[in-house]
Design brief:
- Keywords: Aminotransferase, Cytoplasm, Glutamine amidotransferase, Repeat, Transferase.
- It catalyses: D-fructose 6-phosphate + L-glutamine = D-glucosamine 6-phosphate + L-glutamate.
- Its main location: cytoplasm.
- The protein is 45% helix and 17% strand.
- It has helices at residues 8-14, 16-24, 42-47, 57-74, 83-87, 109-120, 135-138, 158-178, 183-205, 208-216, 231-246, 283-298, 332-350; strands at 28-29, 32-33, 50-55, 78-82, 97-103, 124-129, 142-145, 222-227, 249-254, 271-275, 302-308, 320-324.
- The strands form three sheets. A five-stranded parallel beta sheet has the order 4-3-5-6-7, with helices on both faces. The chain has a five-stranded parallel beta sheet with strand order 9-8-10-11-12, sandwiched between helices.
- The mean pLDDT is 96.
- It has 368 residues and is α/β, with parallel strands linked by helices.
- The protein binds fructose -6-phosphate.
């Protein structure tokens, strides 16, 4: 039931705040995190020497955010592998490796096979999953359910937010167990996590500029997305969603990669979305992305910026600024991705497409 919405995707985007609140529920106690991970007890977590995140598509992009957060807080090497690339080679796995799978459906064949391979090699496995009782959690040592609620639209939206939250919770828990973070730092993140549902409601309340933008862009042929650090996976996700439901060619890049090739694509009129980190928390990254914006503007790009409220440094270079509330760097993707999800939704709608059932795609890819 679409509950009065024009599409399941529109409904699910609007459910982002509840998805995040439900994923956090019961897992924040006072100023700290409380996770129950069964077989992955403290002794096992202390002994780990490496983490590999396996997933596909949007779930894999959430894994890139997870990598930055877990490495920052728990000081353990984390790599992100597409599940199908992981299982069709011979990855190095030991009992001290934790393989974290991320899946909305819990049924994605590639991800399931990656988990089975990891277990057969003696690695530990944690499933971050949205669907209770699905296959992947059953085949893993432990599970952290995301509780985003059912996702019907083929394109994943609220589940991405919840996947990021699940990994942030795990990252904090792991860091606490391993003693790599102090209580004050945990308390600061926990405080900001509690604010996220309301901040998401603010982002959702400001959709009109995005709708207008989507309207004038409905015959655009190509859109680029740039980000750095945790903004990089946001750029990748923005591009995936656009190609998936609006059939517009879209690419996401890391800002630093621009001069290594992609800048050749910039010609007058090329639309580029830029995901901007907080100038308060990340002044260096911020100045780097501002120089990226200057480089592409100088070549005629039309620049649409996603930036935190109050960031005035981007104003001289942006054609349009989409604002998100202030938060901590690791939490920014949860807010920044929402305008990009709405943009894809509105553009596909402006083109008269079926946003819930894009051509050639299935919700759950249970075949190879
Ligand atoms: C994109 C999308 C897909 C899925 C991917 C993994 O909008 O929905 O890229 O994210 O197929 O699916 P799950 O999370 O069910 O394993």
């Amino acid at each position: 039931d679409k509950g009065g919405w024009t599409s399941f995707m529109a409904k699910e985007v609007s459910e982002g705040p509840e998805a995040v609140a439900n994923t956090l529920r019961g897992r924040l106690v006072d100023d700290s995190v409380a996770l129950e991970l069964g077989a992955l007890d403290d002794a096992v977590l202390r002994d780990l020497d490496r983490i590999v995140i396996v997933a596909c598509g949007t779930a894999a992009y959430s894994g890139l955010v997870g990598k930055y957060a877990i490495e920052t807080w728990a000081r353990i090497p984390v790599e992100v592998d597409l599940a199908h690339e992981f299982r069709y080679r011979d990855p190095v796995l030991t009992p001290r490796t934790l393989v974290i799978s991320i899946s909305q459906s819990g049924e994605t064949m590639d991800t399931k096979m990656a988990v089975q391979h990891a277990r057969a090699q003696g690695a530990r496995t944690l499933s971050i999953c949205n669907t209770q009782g699905s296959t992947i959690p059953r085949e893993s040592d432990a599970v952290l359910y995301t509780h985003a609620g059912p996702e019907v639209a083929v394109a994943s939206t609220k589940a991405f937010l919840a996947q990021v939250i699940g990994q942030l919770l795990f990252g904090l828990h792991l860091a606490k167990v391993r003693g790599t973070i102090d209580d004050a730092a945990i308390a600061e993140v926990v405080g900001e996590l509690r604010e996220l549902p309301d901040e998401l409601r603010q982002v959702l309340a400001e959709q009109d500029p995005i709708k207008e933008l989507a309207h004038w862009m409905s015959d655009t042929r190509s859109v680029l997305f740039l980000g750095r650090n945790v903004g990089y996976p946001v750029a990748l996700e923005g591009a995936l969603k656009l190609k998936e439901i609006s059939y517009i060619h879209a690419e996401g890049f890391a800002g630093g990669e621009l001069k290594h090739g992609p800048i050749a694509l910039i010609e007058p009129g090329q639309v580029v979305f830029v995901v901007v980190p907080s100038p308060r928390h990340e002044p260096l990254l911020h100045s780097k992305i501002v120089s990226n914006i200057q480089e592409i503007r100088a070549r005629g790009a039309r620049v649409i910026v996603v930036a935190e409220a109050g960031d005035a440094a981007v104003l001289p270079y942006a054609d349009i600024v989409l604002r998100v509330p202030l938060t901590l760097p690791m939490l920014e993707p949860v807010l920044q991705v929402v305008p990009l999800h709405i943009f894809a939704l509105e553009l596909a709608t402006a083109k008269g497409l079926d946003v819930d059932q894009p051509r050639n795609l299935a919700k759950s890819v249970t075949v190879e």
